[in-house]
Amino acid sequence: MKIYRGWRRLLLCLPLVFLLPHLSSVFELHQSSNVEELPKKHNKKFDHLVLGPAAGQGLPNRLQCQGLKALHKAHFSSPSHIATSGETVSFVTVFAVYNYSSHSYDDKSSNLVTVGNASYGKAERSMAILHVFINFIQVSMPQSNVIILTDPASELSVGRNSVTVFPIQGEYSRDKLMLQRIKSYIAFLERRLKEYSERPDHVNHYIFTDSDVAVVDDLEPIFQKNHKFHLALTFRNNKNQPLNSGFIAVRGTTDGILRAKLFLQKVLEIYSSKFMKASRMLGDQLALAWFVKSHPSFDVKRFTRPQAFMDEIHGTSVLFLPCALYNWTPPEGAGQFHGMPLDVKVVHFKGSRKRLMLESWNFFSSSDSNISDMLCLVLKSGRTKYDF
Questions:
Q1: Which residue range(s) make up the domain with 280?
Q2: Which CATH number goes with the domain that contains 304?
C-alpha cells in the first residue's frame, strides 16, 4: 500500500518537473523585455503606437528586426527611368470629400487626433492620409504621376507637383463608394482610350490603388518583365475573398486599356446584379472573385500558392500578383504571421491602421532611418487597432 502511495506522489509531481523550467524561462523573458506587449483585447483602439514582437524572426527571406532597425536591408530596387523609353507609370485613386455636420464638433478636443507635431480633426484625417500616399510614391517612384478621381462637386484641391485632380460625375456617398469606384475607373479608361489615339507614341501605364497604401519600392518592373498582360490583380489564400481590389494595374496600350475596361464592365454588371447588399464594402471584391472563378478553365488552387501567374479570363490576359508582395496588409493574410517578405512592394494600411501609416511616414522622414527600418516599425505595430 505504501509503495502504491509513493508511486502516486511521484506521478503527481512529474508534470511540475517539466513545467517549472518552462515557467521560469517565460518569466525571465517577460522580465527582460522592454517592448510594450500587444493588447490582448483587439477591440480597443490606441492613441499611440504599441510595439509587439516582429513576426517572421529567424525565417528565410523575411525582414529581420532588432528593435526598430532592420538587420539587413530589404531588396529594394533603385527608381527606374522608364520615362526615357517613352513610357510612364501613373497612380490612380478615388477620393471622396465628406462634409461633417456641425453638431459632430460640439466637443472639438474629442475629435482631435495627434500624430507627431500635427493634430487632425475628423475632416482633415483623410486628407492627411492622401498626402502621405503621395509622399511615398514620390520617394519610391519620383517620375510617376498621381491622378485623383473625385466628385466634381467636392472642389478638391491638393496643390502638389505631379498630382492631377480628375473630376468624374457619379454617386460618391459612403454607401455607394465602392460601386462608384469601379464606375470611375471605367470612365477614366474610356477617356484615356480617346486620348491615346492622339498620342500613340507615348505609353502611360496605370496602377489603380486605394489611398491608404504606401508604395515602398519601384513597381515599373511589373510592366517591363510581363509584356503580355492587360490587367493585373492581387490575390491571397482566402476562399471567399481571394482577390483584393485595392491594387489593379493596367497596361497603357490601346489593347490593354480596352481589355481592362471591358473586364471591369463585366465586374460592374456582376456587382450590380449579385452583390448590391455589400455595396458599402466588399461587393467589388466578391464580384471580382465571382467573375474570375466563372471562367471554365480557371484553377482556384493557384490562389493557395504565393507565386505570380498569368491566365486568360474571358478574353483578358490577367497577371495575378501575390498580396504578400504587392498588397501586404498587417495583420490580414496568411503571410503576415510568417513575417514580412524582404522584397515587399506595397503596404496596405486597411481599416484601423491609418494612424500607423502616418506614424510610419513621420518615422521615415524625421530621422536617418531608411525604408527597411520603417518597415520594422510597421511589422512590430501592425496587429494593433489605432484611433485614426
A1: 65-381
A2: 3.90.550.10
- Above pLDDT 70, what percent of the chain? 81
Number of domains in the chain: 1
| 206 part of a folded domain | yes
How far apart are the C-alpha atoms of 248 and 344, rounded to whole Å?
A: 16
Strand arrangement, sheet containing 203-209: 163-167, 145-150, 87-94, 203-209, 243-250, 231-235, 316-322, 309-313
Q: Amino acid identity, residue 4?
A: Y
* Other beta carbons within 10 Å of 111: 17
Is residue 309 over pLDDT 90? yes
pLDDT in tens, 62-118: 999 999 999 987 656 655 555 446 789 999 999 988 765 544 444 455 678 888 888
- Across 228-252, b (16+ Cβ under 10 Å) vs e yields ebbbbbbbbebeeebbbbbbbbbbb
Letter for the amino acid at 325?
L
Phi and psi angles of residue 191, each rounded to the nearest 5 degrees, phi first: -65, -40
What's the pLDDT at 322?
96
Residue 3 within any structural domain of the chain: no
Cell reading at 92: 490612380
